[in-house]
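Q: What would this chain look like folded?
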Amino acid sequence: MGLYRENGERITRAAFPAAAVTDPPQRITENVYQTEPYGRGDGRPEGSRRHLLYEAGDVVPKSVIDRLFTPATVTAITPATGPAAGGTIIAITGTHLDGVSAVNFGATAGTDLKVISATELRVKTPAGAAGAVDVVLVDDTGNVTETDGFTYTA
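A: My prediction, written as structure tokens:
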């Protein structure tokens, strides 16, 4: 017994036709559910249905898991200006904001972050020097930067 190519040529162990996997399989360790709104609601989780996406023990490529986590986007920051003393509560709207765990204004973290929905969050600005700063959303898929997204006024 042995292994052979389609043309009848024997395959040796050293010449086995295989390539290294660049997308390693991942074993799911607990049941994973996905929620979807019942209809064209407001995007909030209330009124959603939940269904089993992966059962514990399923094996899926890592790339499939990565595609489940869509990067956040920013469409608006309101208000876009506030006092250098900080304390301005701003609303950030966009998409896939439910994975955001922190918002930084320049190098300083905002406080009192509240994720309202997948399309809106609110955060209080820290104190900062007068001028424009980048607003950086720390997202579970990677940071999202809105260049000069907030301006501190003197």
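The longest helix spans residues 62-67.
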